[in-house]
Design brief:
Blueprint (H helix, E strand, L loop, with lengths): L2 H7 L5 H8 L7 E2 L5 E2 L7 H4 L3 E7 L9 H14 L4 E5 L4 H5 L7 E2 L2 E4 L1 H5 L5 H21 L16 E3 L9 E3 L10 E3 L1 E3 L4 H8 L3 H9 L2 E4 L5 E3 L6 H7 L7 E5 L4 E4 L14 H9 L3 E5 L4 H16 L5 E6 L1 H7 L12 H19 L5 E6 L6 H14 L2 E5 L1 H4 L5 H13 L14 H13 L3 E4 L1 H12 L30 E10 L4 E6 L18 E2 L5 E2 L3
Parallel strand pairs: 3-15, 3-16, 4-14, 4-15, 7-10, 16-17, 17-18, 19-20
Antiparallel strand pairs: 1-2, 2-13, 5-6, 6-13, 8-9, 11-12, 13-14, 20-21, 22-23
Helix pairs in contact: 4-17, 7-8, 7-10, 9-10, 13-14, 14-15
Length: 555
């Protein structure tokens, strides 16, 4: 059956029952219908967080064939629950951009899903909408201040860095002119749109510890300069309180359930190629407050989401994972080994062998953070025994645990061996992760450390705009912030065509955006865009709703 048909056959439990099983009185949750709820931040138990075993699920470099990182995360959490370890899976919220674009939904697959599928993929509890509104309120206040004669800060429109956002892939909005139509319609200037997942408001929501921290970070957003070269922040526009008010419900994590009726928390949705790529700190802490094991995932490959998870989120939140499950598929490795997309279901040991260096590089990167890796082979029915054994041979040579996970077909029962590996590693772990770099290092050194040690680059090059931005960052005293590199997810390099494990390449930084509210800098490399476009045949072409309200085509 399709993912949608499997989801529709599931007998959902009332969310009040899920809350009770999670450990929270149903009277304390905010209900969003029968099967969704929000949990008040006050329910986080800091004293319990350190007792929970945090497990990160990551993956090799993504391919069009898909790796199933979210599916593995959900399946692993089901398996741990079957082994009597109270476990919660904590994930990001789907963006409508991929849902209507090329990727489709993001709630797992087969018998490893989070539910209700349609609601989670379409609007959910309104968090993305609230983030959009808060972001665009600041944009409106900025333009109003430029227009104002009595409340002007003297903002120089040419220096304003704040764009608008929309939760849709819309390349036509990347660069626009606003303020046309005469003196009552504003001051004409060039600006643009980013996708909501790339909004600094999204980043702030996902890095904040509580409402007070959220409000302070909103005030710290850098806007631009006055004509006299003085920096302007959101707090100068007296808008942080109103923005926080719009986010008062969005900051609360969302409680739903897995296909097997276990608790799941879904909160925040930054992409990993253009943002920090992990769910909210609050969502993770909530899961850890009530669970023996908390399984979470970081977007795209380990070089993107997981690096940011460790160097930004873990350092900021003071959390430390006990293990990393590295998801791979035989199909994806064959693609990295030169096989075409049409050939991936055919046995091809030679292509698989050529693709293994990509897996090896990500394994090497995990160890650099002083964390133990475990390989999860996400099984497809076309995988051969010989191909599976080739990956197991690599694991044996490197003394790395490996398990075949058949969670799409079997749910938690298909990940029991993987869960046993996770338990053994977590319960014998006495170390804390080591960050890759110190935040006090110069910005160029932080970028170079990631580019050389994680990506495998030979050198980092900066164009003239990026060099100007480096100077500006130092003048503003923001050079001690960590870096959140925007880079293609398709390659370890900044060139999406360089598959496998490229070497001797140069990373080119073309500009560096300031996210002082979120607390990091965003070096933008290669041709990466913070507003994606739709493919020639977007997924929206296949999505429909019947007269009776039945949705089809989400997967």
């Amino acid at each position: 059956m399709t993912d949608l048909k499997i989801a529709k056959k599931a007998q959902l439990k009332p969310i009040s029952q899920i809350a009770q099983n999670f450990g929270i009185d149903p009277e304390d949750i905010d209900m969003y219908g029968k099967y969704k709820a929000k949990i008040p931040i006050a329910k986080i138990k800091r004293s319990q967080v350190k007792k929970s075993n945090l497990i990160l699920v990551s993956a090799i470099s993504p391919t069009p064939a898909g790796e199933g990182k979210t599916t593995i995360s959900i399946g692993l959490s089901e398996a741990l629950n079957q082994l009597k370890k109270k476990t919660t899976v904590v994930l990001r919220e789907p963006s409508l951009g991929p849902v209507f674009g090329i990727k489709g939904g993001a709630t797992g697959g087969g018998y490893a899903q989070v539910l209700p599928l349609e609601d989670i993929n379409l609007h959910f509890t309104g968090d993305f909408s609230a983030i959009e509104k808060a972001h665009n309120l600041l944009a409106a206040v900025i333009d109003n201040n430029i227009q104002s004669k009595t409340n002007s800060l003297g903002l120089d429109p040419r220096t304003i860095t704040w764009k608008r956002v929309i939760d849709m892939n819309d390349r036509a909005l990347r660069r626009i002119i606003v303020g046309l139509g005469g003196t009552t319609s504003g001051i004409p200037r060039e600006t643009g749109f980013d996708i909501t997942a790339a909004s600094e408001i999204m980043a702030i929501l996902c890095i904040a510890n509580d409402l007070s921290d959220l409000k302070e970070r909103l005030g710290n957003i850098f806007i631009g300069y006055t004509f006299s070269k003085e920096p302007i922040y959101a707090r100068d526009l007296k808008v942080a309180g109103a923005m926080a008010t719009l986010l008062r419900h969005a900051i609360k994590p969302n409680l739903v359930q897995t296909l097997e009726g276990n608790p799941a928390i879904i909160h925040g949705g930054p992409f990993a190629n253009i943002a920090q790529g992990t769910n909210s700190v609050i969502g993770t802490l909530m899961g850890m407050s009530y669970s023996d094991y908390t399984v979470t995932e970081a977007g795209f490959g380990f070089d993107l989401g997981a690096e940011k998870f460790f160097d930004i989120k873990c350092q900021s939140a003071g959390i430390s994972p006990k293990a990393v499950v590295l998801t791979t598929t035989i199909r994806a490795l064959k693609y990295h080994g030169g096989a075409s997309l049409k050939e991936l279901e055919q046995p091809n040991v030679n292509a698989l062998r050529k693709g293994l260096p990509n897996l090896e590089k990500h394994l090497e990167n995990i160890v650099k953070f002083n964390v133990t890796p475990i390989i999860a082979i996400n099984k497809f029915k076309t995988d051969t025994k010989e191909e599976i054994e080739l990956i197991k041979d690599l694991a044996r040579v490197r003394n790395i645990r490996v398990a075949v996970a058949n969670v799409w077909a079997k749910g938690g029962a298909g990940a029991i061996k993987l869960a046993e590996h996770v338990i053994e590693v977590a319960e014998s772990n006495t170390d804390s992760f080591s960050p890759l770099y110190g935040w006090n290092m110069p910005v160029e050194k932080k970028i170079e450390t990631i580019a050389k040690r994680i990506y495998g680059a030979e050198h980092v090059d900066y164009n003239s705009k990026a060099k100007l931005h480096l100077k500006r960052i130092k003048e503003l005293g923001l050079d001690k912030l960590p870096v959140c590199i925007a880079k293609t997810q398709k390659s370890l390099s900044d060139n999406p065509k360089l598959l496998g494990r490229p070497k001797d390449f140069i990373i080119t930084v073309r500009e560096i955006e300031i996210a002082s509210g979120a607390g990091f800098l965003i070096p933008i490399t290669g041709d990466i865009m913070r507003m994606p476009g739709l493919p020639a045949h977007p997924a929206s072409e296949g999505i429909d709703i019947s007269d009776s309200g039945e949705i089809s085509g989400l997967f």
